[in-house]
Design a protein that fits this description.
- This protein has 575 residues and is of the alpha/beta class.
- Among the domains are: 231 residues, ABC transporter transmembrane region fold (Up-down Bundle), CATH 1.20.1560.10; 164 residues, P-loop containing nucleotide triphosphate hydrolases (Rossmann fold, 3-Layer(aba) Sandwich).
- 62% of the residues lie in helices and 10% in strands.
- It contains 20 helices and 12 strands.
- The strands form 3 sheets. It has a 6-stranded mixed β-sheet with strand order 6-9-10-3-11-12, sandwiched between helices. A 4-stranded antiparallel β-sheet has the order 2-1-4-5, covered by helices on one side.
- About 2% of the residues have low confidence.
Amino acid sequence: MKDLITIIKVMFVKKRDIIFSVLCGFIAGITAVGLFALSGYLISKSALAPPIYTLMILTASVKMLGIISALSRYGERYFSHRGTFTMLSNLRVSFYEKLEPLAPAIFHKYRSGDLLSRIVGDVETLQNFFLRVFYPPIVLMLVFLCTVFFTAFYSVEVALILLIGLILTTFIVPAIFALRQRKVERKVRESRGELSTEVTEFLYGFRDLKIYQKLEGKESRLRNSANVYLKKQERENVYNLFSESSNTFLSLFVSFVVLGIGAYLVSTEQLDGIFLTMLLMISLTVFENTTSMSVFPSYLEDSRQAATRLNNVVGMEPEQKMSKNSEEKLSIIKSPAVGVNGVSFAFPDEARNTLSDISLTLPSGSKTAIVGPSGSGKTTLMQLLLQIYPINQGEICLNNKSINLLSQESIWENTNVVLQKNHFFYGTIRDNLLIAKNGLTDGEMENMLEKVKLGYFSLNDLVLEKGENLSGGEKQRLAIARAMLKNAPIWLLDEPTSSIDALTEADIYNYLFEEAKEDTVVLISHRLTGLERMDQIIVMDSGKIAEAGTFEELMGKKGYFYEMKQIEQSVFLNA
């Protein structure tokens, strides 16, 4: 239940709607009871041929109560739904604020389809928390207690029966069904997450599945996931309907008991017969409010599990936060020096270290290449420099200040980054370049496109989602253009030209290094050509630094770098 406390805190941001919902709900419930009680009394009184003014007063009172009940019921619906929409809005904002700092590390723990299911499905599920879980029991208790208190003036026995009926229909029976439904509800949530994951992977991987002729197998798995989800939903609905019908039967049974006991009390002259119909109508009406309690366990369990699934995601926050004081901004006058001291790192839930005891120094304005085979930890080191993941051991410093004390935003603000996979948004070339920096002119962007050999593009040319209409080389050059337009003092380049031909690559590097001659540059590359201009080369293997030095020093050692260089040259010569 502690997971629901977060939801309640978000819900109480707007207390006015909650108070008005409870107030209008109480007025609607108590006037409905009064309306039917007065109607029952009017029926009995009419049989005794009372004066006409008595009937007029009773009839007018019935109409007045009907109008009040209708208006208050409308007010209840209005304020409760407005409060629900406000709660959902605040909940989404609150969840995204907590989720944003966890990206992209969170994708190592949760698959994108499962995350989508939680963000959309579980948040939507919580709309029922206020409407079906929070305020209905409050209104029910207030209406019932007032009704029992009123009934006790006419018959203590009937009031006692109503009280027992309240306990049974509101607490005992729902609790019994809640214990049985908990497992069913959890399986429905898990099945929905699995189905969402299968759908997401099917859509993203459709082209590859088609090429490798594995579409039918994936479709079969998707159908199986859908069938499992539908069966669990069906079972959940059966439980809900059975709970509702049981509660309704019990409510009607209590009304029959009220009728039987009331008739006995009238026969023994312990109760005036004119009030028997009134008490029966009270019983029938007040137990209509218990209908919501029949589905209360289902909605409560739904809300609890939805809140738990959401909190499990954002609950990573304390582990991912680098420091409580990580709001200090990185202040850079010139290109910074970078120090990596004894850094070791393993991804969450992995026993194997991706990096082990990495120590290196990148002087201010230096140009450093990090090379090595795939899986040696080059990209992971760059991600640690960007503070994307927390360091398990050791420290990384910018200008002798630990990055644990710096905000991520200030590090990114001062860094030009080109990743192996860069995201491109649906829109135009202009839209995808403007994210580099505010205030860019068309002339600046067009000039930069020329520099990266993309002059044949117009700023108004369309870019599809994820840049699907661009080649691999065009994506890389557009990413490089974006980084150079930002023009920050730190450059982190991860395989920026792996899909670009050698001549274009040479031209781009010449311009890039001219632009970054005073900046600190880190280049991650599999290619070993053109590294003669680098101030130092770090050779990594299996998460460790195998060698370090200038190009001439490493070639003179005839070690690991020399062997890689010889292999690369022999491949090109044989080609």
